[in-house]
Amino acid sequence: MHTLRAFVLVVALGLALGLPARVPAAERTQGRLAAFATSDAVVHGIAADTSVVFVTEPGIAPQGSPPRVVAYDRRTSRRLGELPPPPGGFRLPFALRVARPGTLAVLDNAGFPPQGPPKVHEYRYARSGVLRAAHTRTIGFDGLPLLFAEDIEVLPGGGYVVSESIAGGLWLVGRDGTVTPGLVPSGAPVPGLAGCRDTSGRFTVGGLPFASAGGFAPGVGSLALRRDQLYFGNSCLGGLRRVALATLRDTSRPAHERAVEIDLVAARRPGPGIESLKALAFDPARPRERWVYAGDPFRLRLLRIDTVTGRREVVARDPRLLNFPVAATFAPGRRDRGRSTLLVASDQEHRWVGLNGALTRSVFQAPWVVAKLVLPRSSGRPDRRRQSLAEAGL
Question: Whole-angstrom Cα distance, residue 377 to residue 334?
Fold first, then answer.
């Protein structure tokens, strides 16, 4: 505690004298952080295979930007082109996953605010010099109580789970495209999944005042699967939670009865403001590792969280390269001298008047960045100094 106070005093004195503040060793980036690609439009979702990186551009800004999915060469970051739009076109392509080699799933909301139910568009694609892609089917959620679909994750054996963040629910999609409720409210909200009224008031994000538009904090959002456990963030509650796939699929019991089996992995950090853990990703090259990587967008940084103890460590902080990190994926296959590569998309949500009620106009910082973090070889042991900073909210 005394060390932390001393650090704060040194930084304050340096700022007062016009001196550059030194970044403490425990706050420096783990690995090499750089820009992978940039875009003149808002980016959001990201997925990758051994040769291609896919990024969604929802069409939110700048005005007139088309909603689309853009492909990049994984090695050179050269732009390869766009996916052909599905029948009727994209509305708000938000999240996406490589379901299996050569198959991509795109979660598409019906605009913002949504003007209808979301859809999942599937594509087959191939890469041999140029990218070839074709739309194969659309899975609809017509007639179901989904307001805004936040994320999609691939299930073992095929199919998907989709998070809905307004009512707060997890929906299952079978391999045949059949949609069934997993943990979905029928009346009262499901504990651990629902959104809520935001009582955090005004706070600061990246030097900007922030207040939730409409005073609402969404529920279940970002998803990541490891073995038989589904991990998820929740902007209403903060922290990280998980639920067993067996619980999610057991529709013989009502959702409220099964909700008690949702486990708290890491509690919300102390301090003011919203905590919304996004960009959840496990390293597939390290299947026994306990860490899940997570964006901490309201603090413009990346964390890693021990899924056994709940310990947190700061992995990287950068106001330009991690300008509200919302989606991440580990690039499979090729590795940089045995090191894993994490790709991170930041959408600058805190700079958009549509979500920041403290602004009178959007103040985006073009271009939007997809960052690349090449991680060091890890022993898997926690770094106590980084853990202390994360727990102190710094």
Answer: 15
The per-residue b/e assignment along 372-386, b for 16 or more CB within 10 angstroms, e otherwise, is bbbbeebeeebbeeb
CB-CB contact of 256 with 190 (8 Å): yes
Residue at token pair 């079978």: 174
**Given this model, what pLDDT does residue 333 score?**
73
* Average pLDDT in the chain: 89
Query: 256-308 pLDDT, tens per residue?
Result: 999 999 999 999 998 889 999 999 999 999 999 999 999 999 999 999 999 99
- Residue 326: what pLDDT? 99
Question: DSSP secondary-structure letter at 261?
Answer: G
Asked if residues 339 and 8 have their Cβ atoms less than 8 Å apart, the reply is no
Q: Is 27 among the domain residues?
A: no
The span from the CA of 322 to the CA of 182, in Å, is: 33
Domain carrying residue 129: 32-391
CATH number at residue 196: 2.120.10.30
Structure tokens at 40: 């003149």
